[in-house]
Amino acid sequence: MSTPLLEIKNLHVRVEDNEILKGVNLTLNRGEVHAIMGRNGSGKSTLSYVLAGKEDYEVTEGQVLFNGEDLLEMGPDERAAAGLFLAFQYPIEIPGVATMTFLKAAMNAQRKARGEAELTTPEFMKAVKDASNLLEIKQEFLRRPLNVGFSGGEKKRAEILQMALLEPQLCILDETDSGLDIDALKVVSEGVNKLRSADRSMLVITHYQRLLNYIVPDVVHVFSAGRVVETGDKSLALELEAKGYADFDETHAA
């Protein structure tokens, strides 16, 4: 039996004096898409930040294994080079830096961290063209400064393009549906679905079941008060939509 791609065991995390994660357990196998759902403040985004290596989050107990290696011992750059990608809820704007320039720098930084040679310009241009065609992104979009003046949907599409080019093993989508209208949500979801594969796993963090109509998960986890309180198949998301989170909070308290 193969090693799970991601194993989170009894993870406890503090931010300043507040314990946010209180014993998270979660296993993600290769090729699987897992959704994490929960109300605001339940710890969903904290988990994504800890996995990506964001500062100011103190792990006080527990273990995270990525491909069998201790993820918590790696710096953010090492995690990215190892194949972890975090799509932010609010992608940053970088005035004066063309999207193409940013993409090339990101790809070469990752290759350097892996001890690989930088891409030549023709190699890079071919990779971008192939990914853009797959995701139906127009070339003029790539000449604009990164995320400057982009709509919410365009920012998310730019992140999905990064994801396609960096070819991560694990994609963490932190509330990628935030601020998107239904048309933008469909476009972004189509892009994500085109990147699903037997070698790539995804952790989709969301408040709402509507995203999961388009990115259909294999497994759904419900977060409450800093831990996973329920795990099931995609029908669990529909149950949450119908009942709300209160029943799960009460079940956990009991």
From TrEMBL:
Gene3D superfamilies: P-loop containing nucleotide triphosphate hydrolases. Residues 6-250 form the ABC transporter domain. InterPro entries: AAA+_ATPase, ABC_transporter-like_ATP-bd, ABC_transporter-like_CS, FeS-cluster_ATPase_SufC, P-loop_NTPase. Pfam families: ABC_tran. The keyword Nuclease does not apply. Keywords: ATP-binding, Nucleotide-binding. Coiled coil: none annotated. GO terms for molecular function: ATP binding; ATP hydrolysis activity. PANTHER family: ABC TRANSPORTER I FAMILY MEMBER 6, CHLOROPLASTIC. Belongs to the ABC transporter superfamily. Ycf16 family. This is Fe-S cluster assembly ATPase SufC.
